[in-house]
Design goal:
There is one protein chain. The protein is an alpha/beta fold and about 170 residues long. It contains seven helices and six strands; from the N terminus they run E-H-E-H-E-H-E-E-H-E-H-H-H. About 30% of the residues lie in helices and about 15% in strands. Strand 1 (about 5), helix 1 and strand 2 form a beta-alpha-beta unit. The longest helix is centred in the first third of the chain and has 11 residues, at about 35-45.
Length: about 170
């Protein structure tokens, strides 16, 4: 199982990348603060991962890559790139491209202090969405991610979510 992690804005030294590298030998595709979408997409095409885990802005970028032969697990995804302007990011070079439909699992935290989880829940309503009470924007509940990555039903999303996990088990 080949796993790639794409960090969020200002997350080049992400602790999640280190943890995923140690536990799953995941490759870290670095999303720079210049939001290098083309570079990230090119790396996905070259690596051809089975699973892509992305955080926040990394989710926005992964959604715009044409590589589609993986399961995409998004942690507190950014859905509106204009939000980054509030953080001082230059987004003038980013064209609003369509999202490419993927096999997505969306993990949201109600206590996310940066992004409104309800907007993401609505945006990804056709995907497998799980909402946790706690974990903040940094997604501190990595054990819940591990339950999914270690699950034998990961490649059968319907079975994974409706037979193997109960809602209580993931919260």
């Amino acid at each position: 199982m080949k796993i790639v992690y794409i960090n969020g804005y200002n997350g080049e030294n992400s602790n999640k990348a280190k943890i995923l590298k140690e536990k799953y030998n995941a490759t870290h595709i670095v999303l720079k603060n210049t939001i290098n979408i083309d570079e990230v997409c090119k790396e996905l095409d070259q690596i051809k991962p089975d699973i892509v885990v992305a955080s926040s802005t990394g989710c926005y970028v992964a959604d715009r890559c044409k590589y589609n032969n993986a399961i995409f697990i998004y942690l507190n995804p950014l859905i509106d790139i204009k939000f980054l302007e509030k953080l001082g990011a230059d987004i003038s070079h980013i064209n609003p491209t369509p999202s490419y439909k993927k096999n997505r699992i969306i993990l949201l935290n109600e206590d996310d202090e940066l992004l409104d989880y309800k907007k993401a829940k609505e945006y990804y309503k056709d995907d497998n969405v799980y909402i946790f009470k706690k974990g903040k924007h940094k997604f501190e509940n990595m054990d819940d991610l591990f339950k999914i990555l270690d699950n034998p039903y990961l490649y059968n999303l319907d079975r994974l979510f409706w037979e193997y996990f109960s809602k209580e088990e993931l919260q």
